[in-house]
Amino acid sequence: MKVDFRHTRWLAYFAIFLVLGCGGDNLNYVPMNTSSKTLKQIPDSLLKSLSGKKIFFGHQSVGYEIIGGVSQLMKDYPDLQLNIVETRDTSDFNQAVFAHSRIGKNRHPELKILDFCSIMNGGMAQKADIVFFKFCFVDVDRNTDIERIFNEYIAKTREIQNLNPDLKIIHLTVPVRVKPDGFKGFLNRVLLRDHNINRNNFNNMLRKHFPPQDLFDLALYESRSVNKERISYKMWGTQVFSLDPDITYDGGHLNDKGARYIAEKLLIKLIDSLQE
Fold it and tell me: Are 242 and 231 in contact (CB under 8 A)?
């Protein structure tokens, strides 16, 4: 049978048109503001104040990169003397500490929620000033039931907050990945199987639920790097926000530039929380 490649070509053009779209809305995007402040604009007194707090950060691999960025920033700001310790032991909270620890298991967001709650209910919530944990990009993919995870996260963190009203809980959006390339990436975008869709939608649920002062919009900073417009790509007439390729070494994890950039924004968020 002879194949008419002219028809195949026009089908390909039509598919590309559907993916790229023309205009269209964002994926239920809720506008958020990124902080334009830098640590250079923060008074030394506030850097010292943060250094005197008891902080806990639960994470996995990207978290280590952010902690590495914090360590690099401390070299440039003498008044920022955080006592960084990898621990979840409450006995380490008898003094000022920036504690961090692995929590849960990647690809199982519900286990991270439960592990974080276990740490908090084990005495951490009574000793810490500020606590937070982050999901990884692999925790939310196209198959994730984001409504179930969202509802569980809200219920568990609300329970912790109700039992510990003086505890500051900061909520983080889920990291995103770079735009998927190649034929497979193109096909996943056409079939709406791109993992970033669910990540964007889950993050928008968080943005709608929490006031800006309680949210560190990690995904927003990842997609809007230094002096750049927000990184996104069109799919079926909508925009999907993605990781800036300039701040990653593998499409998901942060390189040195990205780690330092995100760490600075996180520290500014923590400092702002002290003044609320």
Answer: yes
pLDDT digits (tens, 9 = 90+) for 63-104: 999 999 999 999 999 999 999 999 999 999 999 999 999 999
pTM for the whole thing? 0.88
The domain segmentation of the chain, as residue ranges, is: 5-274
Which CATH architecture group holds 5-274?
3-Layer(aba) Sandwich (3.40)
Token pair recorded at residue 87: 């621990």
What's at 205, amino acid-wise?
A: M
Per DSSP bridges, beta strands 130-133 and 97-102 are unpaired
Nearest to 266 by CA among 198, 215, 210: 215
Contacts 24+ apart (CB under 8 A), 111-120: 112/58, 112/139, 113/149, 113/152, 113/153, 113/156, 114/156, 115/58, 116/58, 116/156, 117/156, 117/159, 117/160, 119/56, 119/58, 119/88, 120/160, 120/164
